[in-house]
Specification:
The strands form 3 sheets. Strands 8, 9, 10, 11, 12 and 13 form a 6-stranded antiparallel β-sheet that branches. The protein has 331 residues and is α+β, with helices and mostly antiparallel strands. It contains 11 helices and 13 strands. The longest helix is centred in the first third of the chain and has 19 residues.
């Protein structure tokens, strides 16, 4: 097949997480070509008409979507697949509607709550009566950007004590943000990969906080993900081995991850992030449509644990994007 790899055009001085996008681009290209496909790269920016014309002229058999942001903002991540869908070209990963809903973390949390899925309570900027009346004024809160991924803006200062401090940080935030009740406890990532008959849950992973100072917030912030050699990066290893006593918790996390997949109409692959409090109660933090495929990222680690190579993963992502052939039409 002729496959176009759609990715964001980087310029200026990109952040570490933005540069990492090129790593997964090269990986996907390598594996696709090893499978016999002809690959072409298409870097996209805010000139949507130029992208639309190029795709309309080339008419590839498939677009492998690796767009995580446009114009430096994850808020527009859905535009790439939306353009492809409008042209009727098969596209890997989540449909544009799922991107739109999951990259807006406030919208996603409202949907969690509306469908009975557990998520930490939250405060929106300027909200005086909505969520606020149920919030503990003395609790700890973590302030997060609404539309950014990759733990952008998440550091120790993002965790504050008290509702007043949360309001103050929201008011001073450089990007649209919200404050979420900080769940003290364990952190889990559950990866999902589509297969011919549904979706497969890959081995659950827990991010552990080793030798963590008592007064340091236990978060997987920007430094933990992107500052190699930092304390946060070195002391947040991932583990896949759990005692039998964790079996009920892991079963519940699995159920919640599958419910998120269905709720947002995800496709191809995804990752759901959780915190689990001291009573063993899980809370959904966010849903990541099209999570990073770089070798050191969480999704490939879970796939490797399941015995899948990067080529296996890429092939299954491609297969999930192609039109389904009814069983009665198969030879």
């Amino acid at each position: 097949m002729r496959i176009v790899l759609l990715h964001e055009l980087l310029s200026g001085d990109p952040r570490a997480d933005e540069r990492d996008a090129l790593v997964q681009l090269k990986l996907a290209e390598r594996e696709l070509e090893a499978c016999g496909h002809r690959c072409h790269r298409l870097a996209v920016d805010l000139d949507f008409e130029k992208t639309r014309r190029w795709l309309a002229d080339v008419r590839p058999d498939l677009v492998f979507n690796l767009v995580e942001s446009l114009g430096g903002s994850s808020r527009l991540a859905h535009v790439g697949p939306a353009l492809v869908e409008a042209l009727g070209i098969p596209c890997t990963g989540a449909p544009s509607t799922a991107f739109l809903e999951t990259t807006d973390k406030l919208h996603a949390k409202r949907r969690f709550a509306a469908h009975g899925l557990p998520t930490p309570r939250w405060l929106e900027d300027g909200d005086e009566v909505g969520q606020a009346f149920r919030l503990d004024p003395q609790a700890r809160y973590i302030v997060k950007p609404i539309h950014e991924d990759a733990s952008v803006d998440l550091d120790d200062e993002a965790v504050v004590h008290g509702l007043a401090a949360a309001r103050a940080r929201l008011a001073a935030a450089a990007r649209p943000s919200f404050a979420e009740v900080f769940v003290e406890g364990r952190e889990f990532n559950l990866a999902l990969l589509e297969k011919r008959a549904g979706v497969e849950l890959l081995p659950p992973a827990e991010i552990t906080f080793e030798q963590w100072p008592q007064d340091k917030p236990r978060i997987v912030g920007y430094a933990a993900k992107w500052d190699e050699g930092s304390f946060e990066s070195v002391h947040t290893p991932r583990r896949f081995d759990f005692p039998p006593s964790d079996a009920p918790l892991l079963a519940r996390l699995s159920d919640l991850a599958h419910r998120c997949w269905r709720l947002f109409g995800l496709r191809g692959y995804a990752r759901v992030d959780f915190r689990v409090d001291g009573h063993g109660e899980p809370f959904i933090l966010e849903v990541n449509a099209n999570p990073c495929l770089s070798p050191d990222a969480g999704f490939p680690a879970a796939a490797a644990r399941a015995g899948l190579s990067s080529r296996d993963v890429v092939e299954r992502i491609v297969a999930a994007a192609l039109p389904r052939v009814p069983e009665s039409n198969r030879s």
